[in-house]
Please model this.
Amino acid sequence: MPVNPELQGRVFPSTEPYLVGREKVREFARAVFATNAINLDPEAARAAGYDDVVAPPTFAVVVQEHTLAQLLAEPDAGIDFTRVVHGDQRFTSTRPIVAGDLLTATLTVSSVKTLGPHSMVTAESSITDATGAHVVTAISTLVVRGDE
Amino acid sequence: MAAAPAFDGLSVGDIVAEHSFALTRDSLVRYAGASGDFNAIHYRDDVAREVGLPGVLAHGMLTMGFAVQPVVDWAGDPGRVVDYQVRFTRPVVVDPQLGAVVSVVAKVGQLDAEARVARIDLTVKVGDETVLGKAQARVSLD
Model:
């Protein structure tokens, strides 16, 4: 089944709020070889003007995952997960994610394109904090391989 | 902590950071746990082979995640990275014994004097092969 072109423009319900934990930030930081004290030590983070440890630039993927799971589970999407390859990824931030943030993500399918037997689905997850202010937008292009 | 580099001291083409990362299978398992991405192609040789891959692959998001760290260290603060994008060009195969070594060179690609934002272009390679394309971080400086 090909990817449903009518997905383009679809907006999904916002995800359950995700509470960013200090130990989660540290765990993620260690996993991506981040050694900056601002990522690991709350005192260093406070000295730099933050409320708590600051997440690495790609941490938003943890929150974005929940939105991509919604997309893949959409009954009429026609996206076979075993055929999905991550094409590209972007994060555009208003401010960095900090431990203590309560984040909610809303996914919009910005485009569905066909390239021969393959489809390219671009999904934008807008992530906001507890006050509703924008924190980061995570944009993924998924390449769904078709029958060759 | 290192002070942030001055925007005015930069020129297009300057190499601002260079670093090599040695990945092992342990790195992949640690990233799987931290990120929640438990796709078995990132830690099981049998599954990787079954789906036609040359071996266990590093998560693309792991490679994206560490490739920007030399830029974070240069900038002095992860919060200065305001935009970061990559294209996943080629998979990084992580050998069970030898692992994989990924090299990162970060160079000034463009300077936006009005916004005081430097675009740092990353060259990310395993041996001679580029694994991330169009890898660019926008860094806000004073």
